[in-house]
Amino acid sequence: MNWTDERVERLKKLWAEGLSASQIAAQLGGVSRNAVIGKVHRLNLPGRAKAGGAQNAARPKRPAPAAPRPATFQARAVTARSVARPAVAAKDDLDTAFEVEVEQLPVPANGNKSVVPMSRKLELTQLTERTCKWPIGDPLNDDFHFCGNESPDNSPYCTYHQRLAYQPSAERRRMR
Fold first, then answer.
1. Per-residue pLDDT, 32
2. With DSSP H G I counted as helix, E B as strand and the rest as coil, what are the percentages for the chain, rounded to 5?
3. Rounded to whole angstroms, how far apart are CA atoms 145 and 156?
4. Whole-number mean pLDDT of the chain?
5. Tens of pLDDT, residues 112-168
6. In whole angstroms, what separates CA 116 from the centre of its chain?
7. Cβ neighbours for 130, distance < 8 A, ≥ 6 positions apart
8. CA 100, CA 95: separation in Å to the nearest integer?
9. What angle do CA 89, 80, 145 make, to 5 degrees?
10. Helix or strand (DSSP H, E) at 136
């Protein structure tokens, strides 16, 4: 579709009247809402006040851009060894942190106290369509792995981890 001078003038008139982009597109015919919005921006037509906002409210000025980096800055190649790892806390801190995590684990939606299955401790390259892809541990640590137990058809998780991942919204609200 071509923007003729006549269609552009009609667009400007309808825009000034306060019609929405969808309404203008319907009146012009053969043009989408997004095409109208794009043309309005290219023509630099004035915007309209937001709902509930003051008619003459001006936008706050953006802060001036930061000074460019000096030319001597050189980017370092990031390697697997250059990733910063968190400092290891004292043993007592780890124990209390672990206990807090255990207390915050969600209870399965059916309310049964189920037994946590043993993980097969698979690496990313060992996962298949039929294995549970539930991550266990911190990806920055060497002992990070995936559950790896058998998962039902069309699911990335085993039955136990499905109950953790897919909780009804009422259950999630109660957890907060």
1. 92
2. 35, 5, 60
3. 15
4. 74
5. 566 677 778 888 888 888 899 999 999 898 889 999 988 888 889 998 888 888 877
6. 29
7. 150, 151
8. 9
9. 65
10. strand 135-136
Q: What is the DSSP string of 46-70?
A: ---PPTTS-TTPPPPPPPPPPPPPP
CA distance 87 to 7: 65
* pTM score above 0.70: no
Structure-block tokens of residue 108: 């399965």
Look up residue 83 and give its DSSP letter.
S
Q: Is the pLDDT of residue 77 over 60?
A: no
Using DSSP's 3-state secondary structure scheme, residue 145 falls into strand
Lowest mean pLDDT, pick from 62-71, 103-112, 114-123, 167-176:
103-112
Cα-flanking dihedrals φ and ψ of residue 136, to 5°?
-125, 120
